[in-house]
Amino acid sequence: MRVTTDFWVSAYVRRRNDGGRFTAVVRRGSAEAGAVFVKISRLDGTADLFAPLPQAFFGEGETATTGGRIFEQVMVAAPEADVDSRLASERRFDPDCWIVESESRDGGHDLDVRSADDLG
């Protein structure tokens, strides 16, 4: 069973903050089912960006280990301005999306990450 986006984001932010990695909701989206984008600031001017893996790539009966949400890494150690530009584009495309930002020098993210290649 998939939890609501609001619940999932709250749990993710708490887990990250409890682990000593500052995390905050930058933009609230639809409480029930908004897409979640996670930006990991590496604190050196670069950031990683994680986006929801399209459900078309989930295998039959595929479940995530993190509340039914599977992500793909779409940007790696990219300039933060580029990541922010991509997020602005996502907001224009989907006004119900959520944006969560966390800090991690080593890029740690605590997300269930896969790629379309892994599932295809």
Describe what this molecule looks like in 3D:
The protein is an alpha+beta fold. It has a single domain (5-119), classed as Protein of unknown function (DUF1491) (hypothetical protein tt1805, 3-Layer(aba) Sandwich). Helix content is 27%, strand content 28%. It has three helices and five strands, in the order αββββαβα. It has helices at residues 5-18, 80-93, 116-119; strands at residues 23-27, 36-41, 46-52, 71-79, 98-103. The chain has a five-stranded mixed sheet, with helices on both faces. It is globular and about 35 Å long. The model has no long low-confidence stretch (mean pLDDT 89).
Element string (H = helix, E = strand)? HEEEEHEH
How much beta, percentage-wise?
A: 25-35%
* Helicity level: 25-40%
Named CATH topology: hypothetical protein tt1805
Number of domains: 1
CATH hierarchy: architecture: 3-Layer(aba) Sandwich
Report the C-alpha radius of gyration, rounded. Answer: 14 Å
Mean pLDDT: 89
Number of helices: 3
What class, by secondary structure content?
alpha+beta
Q: How many strand units? A: 5
Classified by CATH, the class is Alpha Beta
Which ranges are low-confidence, i.e. pLDDT below 50, for 5 or more consecutive residues? none
The global form is: globular
Q: Span from first to last CA?
A: 23 Å
Fourth-tier CATH superfamily name: Protein of unknown function (DUF1491)
